[in-house]
Amino acid sequence: MVELHRQNLKYNKKKYKEVKKILRTRINKNMPIEHIGSTILPNMYGKNIIDILVGVNEENEMDKYSDILIEFRRIQWRQ
């Protein structure tokens, strides 16, 4: 069963900034990293998972950074 929670935008914004900062130090300072998904929408219910989109210039960059992103997605944040 999936539990849905009312989004806490202030908390989500803070966590996204932390995620972005960590990824920028591990990957590439100039790589676009965007916050997407239900956690950016007010009055929306969701699973409290902060979805991000990381942009790459070349397809081969996906392989270069995939291990870091897979490792990173296992981190669980608690309110």
Q: What's the alpha carbon Rg, rounded to whole Å?
A: 14 Å
Q: Give the percentage of residues in beta strands.
A: 15-25%
What integer is the average pLDDT? 79
Strand order of the largest sheet: 1-3
Counted by DSSP, the helix tally is: 2
Q: In one word, what is the shape? A: elongated
Largest β-sheet summary: 2 strands, antiparallel
Low-pLDDT windows of residues: none
* H/E topology pattern: EHEEEH
- Content-based structural category: alpha+beta
Q: Give helix % range.
A: 40-55%
What is the count of β-strands?
A: 4
Distance between the termini: 21 Å
List the topology elements.
Elements: E1 5-6, H1 9-26, E2 33-36, E3 45-46, E4 51-54, H2 59-73
Antiparallel strand pairs: 1-3, 2-4
Defining key terms:
15% strand; 4 strands; two-stranded antiparallel ribbon; elongated; alpha+beta
What does this structure look like?
By secondary structure, the chain is α+β, with helices and mostly antiparallel strands. The chain contains 2 helices and 4 strands; from the N terminus they run βαβββα. Strands 1-3 form a two-stranded antiparallel sheet.
What's the short story on this structure?
Helix content is 42%, strand content 15%.
